[in-house]
Each structure stands twice: as C-alpha cells, then as structure tokens.
Amino acid sequence: MTAIYLIGLREGLEITLVVSILVAFLVKSDRRHLLKWVWAGVAAAAAISIGFATLLEVGAAELSFEQQETFEAVASFIAVVFVTWMIFWMRRMARRMAAELRGKLEEAIQVGTFAVAGMAFLAVIREGLETSILFYAAAQGAKDTAQPLIGISLGLLTAVVLGWLLYASAIRINLTKFFTWTGALLVLVAAGIFKYGVHDLQESGLVPGINTYAFDLTKALPPDAWYAELLRGMFNFTPQPTVLETVAWVAYGIPVLVLFLLPLLRKQQPAAPKPAPEPANTSA
Fold it and tell me: Can you tell me where the transmembrane regions are (predicted)?
C-alpha cells in the first residue's frame, strides 16, 4: 500500500498542480466564467481514467492463468516505461510548467470555450491514464484487494489537500526538491514493478528459471513480518527471488537511479579552487 500511496501522491500532485495553475490563471485574469469549462475537461479526463483502470481489471479477469500472467507482465513493463519517462520529464519541467500551461490556456481562450475544456482535458488525461496503468501494475499480487484502493485513495487525497494549500498560499514547498526525491523513490518502485513483470513472464512459462533462486532470506525475512511486508509492498522485494528477477531489478534500478540523481550529485560537488595569481615580476 505504501508504494501505491506514493504513486497516488506523486501523480495526484501533478494533476492538482496543473488544475490549480489553470484555475489561478483564469481567476487572476478575471475570466471566472471559463472555470466551468476547465472543470468539465478535468471531469471528463477523470472519468476516462477511472474507466480505463476498471477495464484493465475486468479484461484481465476474463483471461486464462497463462494469458493473465502475460497480460500483467506487459502492463508492468508499460508502467515502468511511463514512470521512467514521467520522472525525468518532471525533473526537467518542474520550474517552467506554470508558464507553459498559461501560454497554452491563453491560446485555447482565443479559439473558444470548447478549446479551453479540451486543453484542460489533455493536460489531465495523460497523468490520469499513467496513474491507472501504474496502479494496476503496482497492485498485482496484493494479499488484500482493499489495500491498493486505500493506498491510491489516500495518496490522491493527500495530493488534493497539498494542492489546495499551495493554491491558497498556506504552505510553501520546493517543488523541484519534492519531485526529485519522490522521483528517486519511484525509480525503486519501478524497479520492483519491472521485477514483478519478469516474474509474471516466468509464471506464464514464456521465460524459464522460475525455480532457480538467487538467494533465500525467508528465515531472516519471514513473510508474515511487518518489515518484510513493507519491503515487498514498497519495492517488491521478496526473500526468495529468482536469478532473472534479481538481474532485472539491478539492471533497471541502479543505472536509472544514477542517471536520475546525476545532476543533483554534480551540483553538490564543491567547485575546484581557483589557482592563486602568480606574483608580479619586479626584478630589473
């Protein structure tokens, strides 16, 4: 549930920020009559996203075991692609997102009210569909089917509260730092989803090695222990993974995390001291 909460918080805050920027722009420019079109676009995007998530669940339930495992593996890999693209895109766009959204909304206003609704719809639907796929992929294998729903609901609710407080200027947070550190955590979550996708392929019989284990930590991490459940829920860490699962986790998690944090590490490196100027030659 922790991993799904983080997904809901991160994706939900992006959606909330987008909506708050659009609303604030209309309010400050004395165009409140257009707010209903923004909310119409947001509502349509939310409805389609929820419908898409439901379709994923219903469609997978009609498949055979092997087909369902393959379907879940594909969904996991698509989710990994989405989350990887999203965290790198958000790291780059966090500072100039507001100006870009205002510019697009101003262009839409010149076209007409339906263009305003369409612009709001397009701004939200991408995040909504990403959230649906990430939720479906991260929720696979949950022991309690209510936990994923609770996690995503709490994450989205927290994001809405934070977004409203930001809009009302009640709190100030450094969004660049927020998206950097939540992005780093999501890299580890995505590594777990990638590992789970490989496991699904092994379960379906498309990939061998389901009984070839890399290590066995079941004695140190009993499945019913709270810390084992936390590791499994957050990073999909299992005490007895296969060799291929372990290779998949390391092959994705380490290089992507290094690439994501590399700009931050470079900023923290102390600048090289400037060489002292050579004394002037005063000899005759």
Answer: 6-27, 34-53, 73-90, 111-129, 149-167, 179-198, 246-265
271 located within any domain: no
Supply the pLDDT for residue 101.
Answer: 76
Residue 265 pLDDT > 90, yes or no?
Answer: no
Across residues 238-264, what is the average pLDDT?
A: 90
Within 8 A by CB and 6+ apart from 23, the residues are 35, 38, 167
Domain presence at residue 147: yes
Per-residue pLDDT tens digits for 103-149: 888 888 888 888 888 888 988 888 888 888 888 877 776 655 677 78
Domain that holds residue 60: 2-265
Query: Is 50 exceeded by the pLDDT of residue 284?
Result: no
Q: What total number of domains does the chain contain?
A: 1
Residue 6 corresponds to which amino acid? L
Q: 3-class secondary structure for the chain?
A: CHHHHHHHHHHHHHHHHHHHHHHHHHHHCCCHHHHHHHHHHHHHHHHHHHHHHHHHHHHHHCCCHHHHHHHHHHHHHHHHHHHHHHHHHHHHHCCCHHHHHHHHHHHHHHHCHHHHHHHHHHHHHHHHHHHHHHHHHHHCCCCCCHHHHHHHHHHHHHHHHHHHHHHCCCCCCCHHHHHHHHHHHHHHHHHHHHHHHHHHHHHHCCCCCCCCECCCCCCCCCCCCHHHHHHHHHHCCCCCCEHHHHHHHHHHHHHHHHHHHHHHHHHHCCCCCCCCCCCCCCCC
